[in-house]
């Protein structure tokens, strides 16, 4: 299989196309909003029909979870060639996602459906502090309301959210971790090491990989992700975000695609997550992963490009997007021999990192 179609015209699909080009493979992108095809890494959009897609692409994948309800992208996402078809039926709705985790016996925060307005005070009485999440559409802190124990419920539009949200118990976690792995069309699997993530206001700002003190957590994380991919008959790269609680892992979110917390693999491993995604779909064997050393990924959020960054330690990946507050417009990857060396490199990026990143590094160093 030397041709793959990715549904979505964004940055993740572009990075898949770049990875494919290095292997002599072709990944084209379909932009659902414009109903146009973007061949390879080109920005020259052209029309394409269902019949042409069927003739040209034996495999279809996705770079996001939500698509228009009608049109070519909707039809392609539901077709038997879409390796994410099962995941798209379950993962985008947090109710069905959490129900699947419960079915598989995979630990997740205790939860209930926000079916009617009175369910919110009842959940607070049951759980104490809670997190209310829209069933679909929320990301980067959007569609999420956090209420501490004894907190004010008036900030949560419970009546408006009735039937459209879930309520989770607020978990006092030690740190946030994630695992990125791949499953090939033939069922072969491969996993990156667990990654430490730091979110500010719901947006990922810094990832550190491999996460320290995870020898006992790596295999359980792999088994959970493998079980999810098998349940959904999924092929390609998938990511799972965890809370670490009392030395155990608890699933927070699932992403049926390449993931922001895996961007460190561009420079931090022999094969990036984008390479691995293409390999898994094109029938290329999933080679053993060589991680180069302690790595960091710094998200560049809502900031214009600075030429001075090119003199900083690390490699800049700039997305060419228009800049607006809260928008991910690029990332920088750093690799060092030690976490101490990584800390020195990150200090050069202090102007784009929120206050507190040093404490994240210190906590990882203490775990080492």
TrEMBL record:
- Where the record annotates domain ATP-grasp, the positions are 98-282
Query: Which catalysed reactions does the entry list for this protein?
Result: 5-amino-1-(5-phospho-beta-D-ribosyl)imidazole + hydrogencarbonate + ATP = 5-carboxyamino-1-(5-phospho-D-ribosyl)imidazole + ADP + phosphate + 2 H(+)
Stated EC number for the protein is 6.3.4.18
Q: Which UniProt keywords apply?
A: ATP-binding, Ligase, Nucleotide-binding, Purine biosynthesis
Listed GO MF terms: 5-(carboxyamino)imidazole ribonucleotide synthase activity; ATP binding; metal ion binding; phosphoribosylaminoimidazole carboxylase activity
Q: What class of enzyme is it?
A: ligase
Pathway given for this chain reads: Purine metabolism; IMP biosynthesis via de novo pathway; 5-amino-1-(5-phospho-D-ribosyl)imidazole-4-carboxylate from 5-amino-1-(5-phospho-D-ribosyl)imidazole (N5-CAIR route): step 1/2
A GO biological process of this protein is:
'de novo' IMP biosynthetic process
A Pfam family that the UniProt record links to this protein: ATP-grasp
Q: Record's GO cellular component, any one?
A: cytosol
- In this chain, ATP is annotated as bound at 94, 133, 168-171, 176, 199, 252-253
Return the similarity comment.
Answer: Belongs to the PurK/PurT family.
Q: What does this protein do?
A: Catalyzes the ATP-dependent conversion of 5-aminoimidazole ribonucleotide (AIR) and HCO(3)- to N5-carboxyaminoimidazole ribonucleotide (N5-CAIR). Catalyzes the ATP-dependent conversion of 5-aminoimidazole ribonucleotide (AIR) and HCO(3)(-) to N5-carboxyaminoimidazole ribonucleotide (N5-CAIR).
Q: How does it assemble?
A: Homodimer.
Q: What is this protein called?
A: N5-carboxyaminoimidazole ribonucleotide synthase
Q: In which organism is this protein found?
A: Alcanivorax nanhaiticus
